[in-house]
Amino acid sequence: MKDKLAKDRTDKFFRCFIASALLITELSFQLWCGLTGVWTAEYNLPFHLCSIATIICSVMLYKNSYGIYRVAYFWGLGGAMPAVLTPDLSGYNYPHYVFFKFFILHGLIIVSVIYMTFVHSYKLRFKDFINAFIYTNILALITIPVNIITGGNYLFLCRKPDALTLLDYLGPWPWYIIPMELVVFVMFFMLYLPFAVKDIMGEEKVHIQD
Question: Rounded to 10 degrees, what is the CA torsion of 12, 14, 16, 17?
């Protein structure tokens, strides 16, 4: 009983630590933008995929929520990993604060999802992959009027990012949005694939034992 309580306390500490680090990092960026006079509704509202992932990953960690995990896994890894591989730093290169904030925040998003996957052994089903794709499209529909009102480019629905990304190979705006849908679908499926393989391997072991 004592070992279980100690394990639970340790787990709660790490979950709260990662969640707090996520929120503090994001809030510090918002504060920096405000103090330096560069905060704008065009860029700083929480409609970037990684901004949304920051919020839902924090809630997932604080509440130890499997329900939120089923979306946070796809939005967290699907948003943070491409961002790290093709960073759009808006000219704020090393050793600027924004450079460190960018990689720390995206790294924490990835860590939060990996932590819940391996420490809590959370699993995903095929329907979770489909639902995450549907929710992403609903988010895009919500984001369109936000972009129109603010003049922003949340979810890159209005133009390509300044940095070189996969979108540069998908054609001009707005036609790249169609293949971008396919890219998101394939990426989410690839993220789901390890769970599918694990389930198949588990079923094979059961049949062998039978």
Answer: 160
